TrEMBL record:
It comes from the Bacteria. UDP-N-acetyl-alpha-D-glucosamine binds at residues 10-12, 124, 196, 299. This is UDP-N-acetylglucosamine--N-acetylmuramyl-(pentapeptide) pyrophosphoryl-undecaprenol N-acetylglucosamine transferase. Residues 189-355 form the Glycosyl transferase family 28 C-terminal domain. Its main location: membrane. Keywords: Cell cycle, Cell division, Cell membrane, Cell shape, Cell wall biogenesis/degradation, Glycosyltransferase, Membrane, Peptidoglycan synthesis, Transferase. Cell wall formation. Catalyzes the transfer of a GlcNAc subunit on undecaprenyl-pyrophosphoryl-MurNAc-pentapeptide (lipid intermediate I) to form undecaprenyl-pyrophosphoryl-MurNAc-(pentapeptide)GlcNAc (lipid intermediate II). CDD domains: GT28_MurG. Pathway: Cell wall biogenesis; peptidoglycan biosynthesis. It catalyses: di-trans,octa-cis-undecaprenyl diphospho-N-acetyl-alpha-D-muramoyl-L-alanyl-D-glutamyl-meso-2,6-diaminopimeloyl-D-alanyl-D-alanine + UDP-N-acetyl-alpha-D-glucosamine = di-trans,octa-cis-undecaprenyl diphospho-[N-acetyl-alpha-D-glucosaminyl-(1->4)]-N-acetyl-alpha-D-muramoyl-L-alanyl-D-glutamyl-meso-2,6-diaminopimeloyl-D-alanyl-D-alanine + UDP + H(+).
């Protein structure tokens, strides 16, 4: 099978696409890929690290207010459709997969015009503008959160698939996570993370809470500041008038996050959809601080979905402090019954077979398209 993947801007759009590719490669090693990304997104640093052919388009998103820039966006979209058509006609894919971000728009729309089967994957509980637009044109819409299927009323077919990133992380080795952290296997680990860049509000609350983690001496805190905030956090800790707690590990970034996640008993984080898929695939309780600075406040909707099912405690950023964070952490760490119940609820929400569900749908779409071309349907 020949597959075009497109998704860009953030890791939350890129890693699900790569997880789908990984599953397809596992099922059929002879599968061929082309990844089409935007010129400005993280895909430019992430995708080239794979052995996948990579092409880019110059594409931007619409501003939500009246702006002359929107005229440029329309022109870039039309040019993007033409460029995508040329790439698709040259590569001749059996199916095109979009996992979000502005770049999906022209690529998936061009595939529709060329009558190539298409699937888009929506990571969030509230769909993005690009996927809303594309849903009426694609063969299948796959959603991460069960119950959000009705968000795409104009789609031909909507399926609950979960997030394919869950499949990748579900395979992670906890023993390797403990080894990477230099901890003995079975050490209770609380992972604090704000994403690859970091989250200022989480960092501030964590720095306020640091002096109190000595009240949990058997628990090891892995505090991932994000690259942007590492030097500032390190300096604050070094200049503080108290001794650094021995049960604190401060890092700018974790290269092998799946293994570290697998070794964790509790996660404190934002509520990006792909990261939540990773957390639930491993059945980890979470304290979530959704970012208020995202479109449609979708992170809070993501987080509340876990909270409603008993898998997470949610703290709104406006209510976040060292004290409120400490209360939430102690509530989970010190109550084994609550922790085990949250872990069970988290695992029930996890969908570790997500990538396999999506790739099965892709094969069906490809087979049907081939049958139509042969005149068998």
């Amino acid at each position: 099978m020949r597959v075009v993947l497109t998704g860009g801007g953030t890791g939350g759009h890129i890693y699900p696409a790569l997880a789908i590719a990984e599953q397809l490669k596992t099922d059929r090693p002879d599968t061929e890929f082309l990844y089409i990304g935007g010129k400005r997104g993280l895909e430019n640093s992430i995708v080239p690290e794979t052995d996948m052919p990579f092409e880019t388009l110059d594409i931007t998103g619409f501003r939500r207010s009246l702006s002359a820039d929107n005229i440029k966006t329309v022109l870039r979209f039309l040019k993007g459709v033409q460029a995508s058509s040329e790439l698709l006609e040259k590569f001749k894919p059996d199916v095109v997969v979009g996992t979000g971000g502005y770049v999906c728009g022209p690529v998936v729309y061009a595939a529709h015009k060329l009558r190539i089967p298409t699937l888009i994957h929506e990571q969030n509980a509230i769909p993005g503008l690009t996927n809303r637009f594309l849903s009426r044109y694609v063969s299948t819409v796959a959603v991460s959160f069960d119950g959000t299927q009705d968000q795409f009323p104009k789609a031909k077919r909507v399926m609950y698939s979960g997030n394919p990133r869950a499949t990748t992380v579900h395979r992670a080795n906890a023993a390797e996570g403990f080894r990477l952290l230099g901890l003995s296997q079975g050490t209770p680990v609380v992972l604090v993370v704000g994403g690859s860049i970091g989250a200022k509000a989480i960092n501030e609350a964590m720095l306020q809470m640091v002096t109190d983690i000595v009240r949990m001496p058997d628990v090891h805190f892995v505090y991932v500041t994000g690259k942007r905030y590492y030097e500032e956090a390190k300096r604050s800790l070094e200049e503080a008038p108290w001794v650094m707690p021995s049960n604190l590990h401060v890092l700018p970034y974790v290269e092998r996050m799946p293994e570290v996640l697998a070794a964790s008993m509790l996660v404190i984080s934002r509520a990006g959809a792909s990261f939540l898929a990773e957390v639930t695939s491993l059945g980890i309780p979470a304290v979530l601080i959704p970012s208020p600075n995202v479109t449609n406040n979708h992170q809070e909707v993501n987080a509340r979905a876990l909270e409603d099912d008993g898998a997470a405690i949610v703290i709104a950023e406006r209510d976040l402090s060292g004290e409120s964070l400490l209360r939430a952490v102690e509530a989970v760490v010190q109550d084994e019954y609550l922790r085990l119940r949250m872990a069970e609820c988290s695992a029930r929400l996890g969908k570790p077979d997500s990538a396999a569900v999506i790739t099965a749908e892709l094969r069906k779409l490809a087979v049907r398209a081939q049958a139509i071309r042969r005149g068998a349907l």
